[in-house]
């Protein structure tokens, strides 16, 4: 698809890379975040420098940092994150929180 002068794609910012080369976990996480729900919520990824690659996700709305951990069980973590947002939004619109 050609680039558009009227549209900018939502892509996450990646910070604190400790290796010269992007590792497979980071690439896989970035691809999985290319999901309609997560694209609207996540603006940045941060990778720690440990042997086991752990990630933090930064949200578009609010001052929230999600300690995501490794990419293992990504689908389950995404499901829980969606449930959190749906419940938090429902609570917020009905006078909760």
Description:
The protein is an alpha+beta fold. It has helices spanning 24-33, 36-41, 74-93; strands at residues 13-15, 42-47, 55-59, 65-69. It has a four-stranded mixed sheet. The longest helix is centred in the C-terminal third of the chain and has 20 residues, at 74-93.
Short description:
With 97 residues, the chain is of the alpha+beta class.
Number of strands: 4
Q: Outline, from the CA principal axes?
A: globular
Determine the number of helices (DSSP H or I, runs of at least 4 residues): 3
Helix/strand structural class: alpha+beta
Using the CA coordinates, give the radius of gyration.
Answer: 15 Å
**How far is the N terminus from the C terminus?**
42 Å
Mean residue pLDDT: 77
Relative strand content: 15-25%
Helicity range of the residues?
A: 25-40%
List the uncertain runs. none
Layout of secondary structure:
Layout: E1 13-15, H1 24-33, H2 36-41, E2 42-47, E3 55-59, E4 65-69, H3 74-93
Parallel strand pairs: 1-2
Antiparallel strand pairs: 2-3, 3-4
Provide keyphrases for this structure:
97 residues, alpha+beta, 4-stranded mixed beta sheet
